[in-house]
Amino acid sequence: MHKRWVLVMALALLLSAGTALAERAQDITQLCLYNGSKGASIKDDSYRTVWESTRKNGIHALEISAPEGQTIGGLLIRWRTWPLALAVETQNENGVWQSVGNCEADFLAQYIPVDGLPAVRLWDAGNAGNTKLQISSITVLTPGEAPADFQIWQKPSDKVDLMMLAAHPDDEVLWFGGMLPEYAGQHQKEVLVVNTSYAREDRRLELLDCLWTCGVKTYPVFLAYPDVCTNQRDRVLERWEWDSLLGDVVSLYRRHRPDVVVLHDENGEYGHGVHRVISEAGRAAAEAAADPESYPRSAESEGTWYVPKVYMHLYPENAIQLNWHTPLARFDGQTAYEIAEQAFLCHRSQLNDWNMQNGMEYDNSLFGLWRSAVGDDMAKDDLFENIGTAQAAENAKQP
Predict the structure, then answer these.
(1) Distance in angstroms (rounded) separating the CA atoms of residues 348 and 344
(2) Cα dist from 286 to 103, 251, 281, whole Å
(3) According to CATH, what is the number of the domain 29-141?
(4) What is the Cα–Cα distance from 104 to 330, expressed in whole angstroms?
(5) For residues 295 and 275, what is the distance between their CA atoms, to the nearest angstrom?
(6) d(C-alpha 161, C-alpha 309), whole Å
(7) Cβ atoms of 312 and 197 closer than 8 Å
(8) Which ranges constitute the DSSP H helices of the chain?
(9) What's residue 45's pLDDT?
(10) Looking at domain 162-395, does it have CATH number 3.10.120.10?
(11) How far apart are CA 76 and CA 67, in angstroms?
(12) Does residue 174 or residue 395 have the better pLDDT?
């Protein structure tokens, strides 16, 4: 009897596994047709190549046809330009395109669910199809469970756990090490990465790949200030406008109310002026965000916020060293640092410039508590020490 029960259970598990496998979505990107052709530039793995639409039947559109016998369950479009609010259509039995809905313009890596259609057509709903589509890459899946690397982003909430102000795409792992895998991936904190500037559009998509690899599901903020290659603060502010930058960061603090903010080294790590300026702005904004007289329009619309804890990379006072080398269950026993190394490889355009900085001159495990409304760190092994206590909640209300 026992052997028969074991055999029945084993068979049930095999059938269950087979069903689960059958329900997994398949990648059919390479098999689809795009506006009637193979569309090599739209389905390659380079973010520097761009597919552009041409006007057809009076509109700029992208038509995607699944191979015979298969249907489309979802699309992931990586835009070269900012994303568009899209009209989504399919063909009826007479070959006429009919609407099946709209997709909002939220993310550069834009997920579009499609309910098992053999063909879809996308065009700019906000401009009657007159906008040229510029796409760096696309992924097309059949219906079913999407793979883990298929990016379905979430908008930031009005109460995030951790906000990281990083100057450029790749700084989020170079200088902050395993912080994103540790807190976003392992501990499931809501982490909002704010990116100040980038030199090329493809670096934004590299950043998204890096964040997703680290377990970040909250879409980052791109401030889009021009990159300035200098070690001088004043040279940066010749291109930027300090009051505008400070107002932007104040608004972010007030809108998303982070418990913890993490900033660059005050000297810009190796002296980069952009690192220095965004670190300075992050500190100044922590003071201004709590003051209703500073940026009063923002205070009126979003309220004030006193950030409970602000850390700086390499800050020598109230120092803390974080351990990125503990195996993480959510990453199958890999460490936060190992995941960060893998994530850094997503920044393909930067791989010849830098190496990860753990244990080196600009050690990415070393931070200091620049300001706290919830007391000093005692254990010194967690950015969220003292966050969540009754005293912390009381202290964080106002300065």
Answers:
(1) 8
(2) 36, 11, 8
(3) 2.60.120.260
(4) 31
(5) 24
(6) 11
(7) no
(8) 2-22, 171-174, 179-180, 202-213, 233-239, 242-256, 273-288, 296-302, 336-344, 390-395
(9) 82
(10) no
(11) 18
(12) 174
So what's the pLDDT on residue 397? 53
Mean pLDDT along residues 112-130 = 94
- Amino acid of residue 338: E
DSSP code per residue over 189-205: --EEEEE---SSTHHHH
| 198 neighbors 168 (Cβ within 8 angstroms) | yes
Among 87, 80, 79, which residue's Cα sits nearest to residue 126? 87
Rounded Cα gap, residues 67 and 71, in angstroms:
8
Distance of CA 45 to the CA centre of its chain: 19
Dig out the tokens for 247 from the structure.
């107002």
327 in Cβ contact with 335 (< 8 Å): yes
Q: CA 310 to CA 163: how far, in whole Å?
A: 10
Encoded tokens for 12: 């049930």
* pTM metric for this prediction: 0.90
Q: Which two tokens stand for residue 365?
A: 């495990």
Neighbours of 372 (CB within 10 A): 21
Parse the chain into domains and list their residue ranges. Answer: 29-141, 162-395
The structure tokens listed for 312 are 């700086």
